[in-house]
Design brief:
Structural class: mainly alpha
Number of strands: 0
Radius of gyration: 24 Å
Helix content: over 70%
Strand content: under 5%
Order of helices and strands: HHHHHHHHHHHHH
Mean pLDDT: 84
Number of helices: 13
Amino acid sequence: MFATIAKLLVKRVLTAIPILLLVSALLFCILRILPVDPAAMSLPPNATVQEVEAMRTEMGLNLPLYQQYGIWLNKLFHGDIGRSIHFRQDVTSLIGSTLPATIELAVIAMMVATVFGLAGGLFLFYVRGTRAEAVMDFVSILLLSLPEFLWSLFLLLIFGVFFEVLPFTGRLSPGFERPLVTGFLLLDSLITGNIPTFLNALQHMILPCLALGIALSPSLMRVLRSSLLDAYQDDYIQQARLRGLSEKRILIRHGLKNAILPTLSLMGVQFGFLFGGTLLVEIIYSYPGMGNLMVDAIRNADLPIIQGAGLTYCVAVLVISIVVDSLYLILNPKLRVR
């Protein structure tokens, strides 16, 4: 099994390289077409025409586009994504300081979506053929029709403003010191044994994670319910009943084991969208992650950050895809013999 997974990893990594090159080229070309002059934006407003021209020459903007891309790609291979025009800092350090926050947010939101999605899917399957099925169908469609930013606003108004039971801005309350070990706040708090900081950070993540997780869970519910209905049409379910197995055991050991694979595949795809969908939620909750950084970069036409953040999202989606495919191989033995 491990040899098959290793082969898959090598194959997917080799496939990811041309995808990354293509995405980087598209990003570079599209951003260069925009009516923005990076040389003028990197200088003070009172800079002279001569100073702007000198800066343009220094940045290589007078060269043909393919040469500019080659220079940028060469720097990328050496770990230099560029320097932010607005923040006057290396893009690598800016992304490195915000990416862990977004990863923590996306991972916990995915855990919330998984719990709600699997529990809701099992309940939808349990009430099949009853009057409750229509009600649950209506509820799941209603949940599905609300995007994450609306959930963010609802939860913020109810639990943050009206009842005032949960914080809804930033990652930590004033007075809490942030430990710096790995960059992941929750993990660093546990490593340093700072439980009050861990609990405070977790409180700040409840509302944004719920907003993202609830918005994602209805699709998981419906796919799991449909997969279970299909699985229960197969002969092995009837054979299990003839052997006298309980319905609970049939569901857990036979039905769910086969029905979970399409759900897992959907979770992998949705996690990629969720990672990109954190942008609006981070803005609403003033959460200092990649989404906030990306919005600042777009507002200030900060091309190096937009390029770096776009590539980071692409790498994240590819990594998630590889992890999901590996889990698929572990859970489905039939795929290992292909």
